[in-house]
Design a protein that fits this description.
By secondary structure, the protein is of the alpha/beta class. It folds into five domains: 225 residues, Rhopdopsin 7-helix transmembrane proteins (Up-down Bundle); 88 residues, PAS domain (Beta-Lactamase); 79 residues, Orthogonal Bundle (Helix Hairpins); 158 residues, Heat Shock Protein 90, CATH 3.30.565.10; 125 residues, Rossmann fold, CATH 3.40.50.2300. Helix content is 52%, strand content 16%. The protein is rod-shaped, with a radius of gyration of 55 Å. The protein starts with 6 loop residues before the first helix and ends in a 10-residue tail after the last helix.
């Protein structure tokens, strides 16, 4: 023998194969590891034998090393096929394996006995035409056994690996790729060696096994060729949350994990038992046995109340059925609870809808009640306040004047109470709409002070107003509601102050191009409010205590309405108070600067001068008291009055006589004011002047009343009780020539 450089990689590969076999020995209990050890040893024999062959310089040495090589060569193809079956878990095809084994044995015997028959190799010669001598083998007819053996092994092992390729996870595919490459690489090299007609050649298969040794070594060191798949399978099978029962097609138990054993109550040696014998309480499994039954989950309940879901899966070998048993008792209980909750929710929704309908009906009834109450109370109040006003302006003795003033003040207090209740109801029902009118804030504050002045003088209180000089003259907002809040706070301050002063202030806290943030405050030197009662003051129907109510009166709605109005306008309201010292009520409000084109608010104080000309006015009113009050007021203002009791009579009068203006009550018998005005404005109207101004007189004061009047064709709207100054202002607005010609002046909330 002599040194050959090509023997170095072969000796290294042979050593690596022995190391691979040693490392695989530690995993010999796992699936396929034993066969793999034999493959590694057979590969080592083949590689080391060929390394010896290349180092030999005579035929005797070459023939001796060939005997060692063929120990490995005759084993490798058959072991590769057997390993493919074991590693993939497929059931071996024993007839095919027997054929492969017979071919391998035939190769071994044919080569070992070649010196006697020369049918495997005709001749074995030494080829010295290359850089070093190699064996030149002349193949005989029995060499065909080896070729059939190699090709059959290559086809079978490839088919086995590729058959299960698509059924495994990606991680296992990578490991299988390593195993497949390492196992099949020598076969490919051998096919190449057999196909190339070279004058001087080497056997490529041992060198391919060199790469295979490296692949196997890396696979064992870094990829856990055997640790992951079988061990993970066993661990997964034993520790699955679901039960797994494996049956063969005859219904015999092939395997069962602990969870399934717990579910079914199986104990002891039950492998091989028929499931009908071992599991008499589980007849549902029968539905999973037919061959065509694949993945048909269904539910199965046991008498004890536990509920299971059974699922089946045909295993890859085609001879086993895996049944997955999943305990769904908790899910069923949750579904039942959920269904019960849905039922309760449906019942609650139905109840809520019924309550909502009842609330809607109650709200409608409440609105109807408020409308009727407004009408029924304002109608007599119209007579009381109207007559008291007329009486106060007549020639009376001092005592009679006091009596008339008391009647008027009491009726106006009752009217204020009605207005508070209606305002609160409208706010509560979200029916109150704010206006956006152009108004002069300093003028509004001065007018508010004038309206409070008489009340303050009666108690000898000092009343003052402090204004920020930078307040813009033209702002946009709802001046009527702003005045209402200021009057409420001012009236309360005067009411609860026995001596001292009440001051009204308005300061700018922030300003920009769009508007100003204002702080309004009303400060008094009155009785003060305890700290623990301050927060509840803004709640509806709330006062300090019963003694306060008896002493000062009131409904407790004023501050609640003020708070809600300020919040509707986007502001905040609060107070600071000290018992015995006084109180300061404040609110902040952002008001936009008014544009020049914005509609202006009507004058807050009516004009006192009467119309310059005597007007002919038609009054449609069914109530005798209200007829008398209206007649007296109109005649006092210097106008001529014609009175009719209903809408039909009003239309008849308008067909025979020209009138300058019509005062139309909305609710009358025979024909109400709405219908009368609609017929008057109709294109088929036969009135002498269908465009005559019509002013609605109504005892209603709810949201939508004004809009309804205007929609019927009326020009404006007066709410009962009618004050003589408000009536005079309305007449002055609509008796002008422009108004009568059809021009409609701006109408506000009078």
């Amino acid at each position: 023998m002599s040194f050959n450089p090509l023997s170095i990689p072969l000796l290294t590969a042979g050593l690596l194969m022995l190391i691979v076999a040693a490392r695989a020995w530690r995993l010999r209990g796992t699936q396929g590891a034993g066969v793999f050890i034999l493959i590694a040893l057979a590969s080592a024999l083949y590689i080391l034998g060929y390394a010896g062959e290349l180092s030999s310089r005579d035929l005797t040495g070459i023939q001796a090393w060939l005997q060692l090589e063929y120990l490995g060569i005759s084993l490798l193809p058959g072991l590769t096929v057997l390993f493919a079956y074991r590693y993939t878990g497929l059931r071996p095809n024993w007839p095919l394996l027997s054929l492969v084994a017979a071919l391998g044995l035939g190769v071994l015997l044919a080569q070992a006995s070649n010196t006697f028959h020369r049918l495997y190799f005709h001749t074995i010669a030494l080829n010295t035409r290359g850089p070093f001598p190699v064996a030149e083998l002349s193949k005989g007819p029995l060499y065909g056994i080896y070729l059939v053996y190699v090709i059959l092994a290559l086809v079978l092992s490839s088919w086995i690996f590729f058959r299960i390729w698509r059924q495994v996870a990606d991680a296992h595919r990578r490991r299988m790729s390593l195993m497949l490459t390492g196992a099949l690489l020598p076969f490919g090299a051998e096919m190449l060696y057999q196909a190339l007609p070279l004058d001087w050649s080497l056997d490529f298969a041992p060198f391919a096994l060199t790469f295979s040794s490296l692949i196997f070594y890396r696979g064992l060191s870094h990829h856990g060729l055997f640790e992951l798949a079988p061990v993970a399978r066993a661990s997964l099978f034993e520790n699955m949350a679901d039960g797994v029962l494996v049956l063969d097609l005859q219904g015999r138990i092939a395997d069962i994990n602990p969870v399934a054993a717990n579910y079914t109550g199986l104990q002891g040696q039950i492998i091989g038992s028929h499931f009908e014998t071992a599991l008499p309480d589980w007849p549902a499994i029968t539905q999973l046995l037919p061959a065509e039954c694949v993945r048909q989950p269904f539910e199965f309940s046991q008498p004890g109340g536990r509920c299971f879901e059974l699922d089946s899966l045909r295993l890859a070998d085609g001879h086993s059925l895996m049944i997955v048993i999943r305990d769904i008792s908790a899910r069923k209980q949750a579904e039942a609870s959920l269904q019960e909750s849905h039922q309760r929710l449906a019942e609650a929704n139905a109840l809520a809808q019924d309550m909502a309908r009842q609330a809607e009906r109650a709200s409608l009834a409440k609105s109807e009640f408020l409308a009727n109450m407004s009408h029924e109370m304002r109608t007599p109040l119209n007579g009381v306040i109207g007559m008291a006003s007329l009486l106060s302006e007549s020639q009376l003795s001092p005592a009679q004047q006091r009596y008339a003033d008391v009647i008027r003040a009491s009726s106006e207090s009752l009217l204020a109470l009605i207005n508070d209740i209606l305002d609160f109801s409208k706010i509560e029902a979200r029916q109150l709409q704010l206006e956006a009118l152009r108004f002069d804030l300093p003028s509004l504050l001065h007018q508010t002070l004038e309206m409070l002045a008489e009340q303050a003088r009666a108690k000898q209180l000092a009343l003052s107003l402090t204004l920020d000089p930078e307040i813009p003259a033209a702002l946009s907002g709802d001046p009527g509601r702003l005045r209402q809040v200021l009057l409420n706070l001012g009236s309360n301050a005067i009411k609860f102050t026995a001596k001292g002063s009440v001051s009204l202030q308005c300061q700018i806290t922030n300003a920009d191009a769009e508007g100003v943030l204002l702080c309004f405050s009303v400060t008094d030197t009155g009785i003060g409010i305890p700290l623990d009662q301050q927060q509840r003051l803004f709640a509806p129907f709330t006062q300090l205590d019963s003694s306060t109510t008896r002493k000062y009166g009131g409904t407790g709605l004023g501050l609640a309405i003020s708070r809600q109005l300020i919040e509707l306008m986007g502001g905040k309201i609060g107070l600071q108070s000290e018992v015995g010292t006084g109180s300061r009520f404040w609110f902040s409000l952002h008001l936009r600067r008014a544009s020049s084109a914005q509609v202006s608010a009507p004058p807050s104080r009516p004009r006192v001068s009467h119309s310059a000309e005597i007007a002919k006015i038609l009054l449609a009113e069914d109530n005798p008291v209200n007829q008398e009050v209206a007649r007296a007021m109109l005649e006092k203002l210097g106008h001529q009055v014609t009175i009719v009791p209903d809408g039909c009579a009003a239309l008849s009068a308008l067909r025979t006589q020209l009138y300058d203006l019509v005062l139309m009550d909305c609710q009358m018998p025979e024909m109400d004011g709405f219908e009368a005005c609609l017929q008057l404005r109709a294109s088929t109207s036969d009135a002498l002047d269908p465009a005559v101004p019509v002013i609605a007189l109504t005892a209603h004061a709810l949201q939508g009343d004004r809009e309804r009047c205007l929609a019927a064709g009326m020009n404006d709207y007066l709410t009962k009780p009618v004050q003589i100054d408000a009536l005079d202002q309305m007449l002055s607005r609509w008796l002008s020539l422009d108004a009568h010609q059809g021009s409609r002046p701006d109408s506000g909330s009078d």
